[in-house]
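Researcher: Re-running this chain for the archive, since the previous output was lost when a drive failed. Same request as before.
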Amino acid sequence: MVRTRFAPSPTGYLHIGGLRTALYAYLFAKKNGGKFILRIEDTDQTREVKGAVDIIISALDKAGMHYDEGPIVGGDYGPYIQSERKAIYLEYAEKLVESGDAYCCFCSKERLEDIHKAGATKYDKHCLSLSKAEVKERIARGEPYVIRQNIPEHGTSTYHDEVFGDVTVDFKDLEDNILIKSDGMPTYNFANVIDDHLMGITHCIRGVEYLMSTPKYNLLYDALGWDRPVYIHLQPIMRDANHKLSKRDGDAGFEDFLNKGFLPHAIVNYIALLGWNPKDNREKLSMDELIDCFSIDGLQKSSSIFDETKMRWLNSLYVKELPAKEFHKLAKPYYNKLFPKRKIDYKYLSELLQSRVEILSDIAERAAFLDAFDEKADKPFDFTLFANKKWKTDENMARELIDECIAITKADALTDRLSDSLNALAEKRGLKKGQVLWIYRIALTGAAATPGGGEEMIKLFGKDEAVKRLEKVKQALN
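Model: Regenerated C-alpha cells:
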C-alpha cells in the first residue's frame, strides 16, 4: 500500500510551501488508494512554538486534507511526535556504531570552530580513530558526546528521483553529520530515516533542498538493511525570479491568507498548480478532481512564482459559486467588525456584495459607503465625487437637483415609482437619466462605487436613512 507522510516542524504557522508538500503527498496517497500520515518533527525543541502543533492540525483540517494516522487520531505506528520516540532513535544509532557506520564524537565546540577557522569545510573525522575502550571510558567519565554518521571518504552514490531522474553525489561533498545530539535527541537527518522506515513510508515527497543530501539517508537505509523509499523532490515556490516565498516576507502562511479572506479550497486549488500541471488546462479543480487527475509525471522541474493576483481571481470564482446562505455566514464577522451598530439589511447587503468581491476582506472597501455619513468616523463628504467626465456632472448640478431628489425619495422610496420619478426629473431638467442617477447615488452613498444603484441602496438602509442622508448633503451644499 502507498503510504506518504507530511512531517512539519512545529515552528509556527503552516507555510504555503509546506502546505503544498502536504497536498501533493495527500493527493498521491489518495489517488493510489493509500494512506496519508502526519508526523511532527520536533527534534529541535529550541525552535518549537507553543501551540504550533494545533495550528498545523487545524490548517490541514481547514484545507480538507484529513490524515489517516498521526497525532490525535493515532494509528499502528505511533507515537507520531518525534520527541516521544527518543529511545527508538538511540537504539538504532547504537546499532550503527556497532557496525562502524557511525561513531561517537567528543569534539568540543571550540575545536570545531578552530578547524573551520583553519579552512576546514566539514568535520575531519577526528574521533573516528578512537578505540572502543577509549570511547567506553570517556562515556563512563560523563564526557558529552554526539554520534556522527560515518560517510565514506571516496566514491559516489547514485539514486533515482521521480522528478529529476538519476542523481549522483560524490561522497567527498558530504559531511559526517550528527545523528544523535549531546542531549540524546536525534537530528532531522537521522530521525526522518528511522521514522519513514518504521512507519512504512513508501514514497518520500519533500523539497528539492534535500536532493543532494539524500545519499546520506540512503547510506543509513543500506547500513540497517532496509529498502529505500521512492523519492519525489519538489522545486520551491518563489516570491519572484530570485527569491523563495519566505515567512520573512510576511503573509506566506496558510492562516495569513485565510485572515485576508481567501477561501480554504481556493488556496489549495491555486497552490496545487504551483509546480504541477493537470495537462488539460483546467484551473478550477475540486479536491476530488485534484485527486482524480494528480500524477507524478505532471510535476515540474522548474520552480513556480506565487501570484497573489491570480489566486484572488481563482478565489472570486469560488466566492460567486457559494450558496447565498453560506456567503452571508462568512461575511457576517466582517459586518460585525466594520459596522457593528448599523441598522441595515445585512442579508440583502450580502446579496449585493457576493458577485463584487474577490476575497472576503474586500467587503471593507465595497461597503465603505455605509460610513460616508458617519459623524463619529470623522469622514467629511467628498463633493468632488459629483464630478463625472462621462456624464458631465458636477457639484453645481447636485445643488440644483438635491431638493427634488429629496422630495422624490420621501414620496416614492421603496416603491415601483422611484425609477419613473427619477426619469421624469431628468426629462424635466433636460438631462440624461444617467446624469440624475449619478447625482442621486453619490448623494445617497458618498461613494463612487457601490454594489448597486439608488434603488438598491435605499432598500439596503431604508427610506428614513436615505432621506436623512440626502438632507445632510443639501445642508452641506448650501
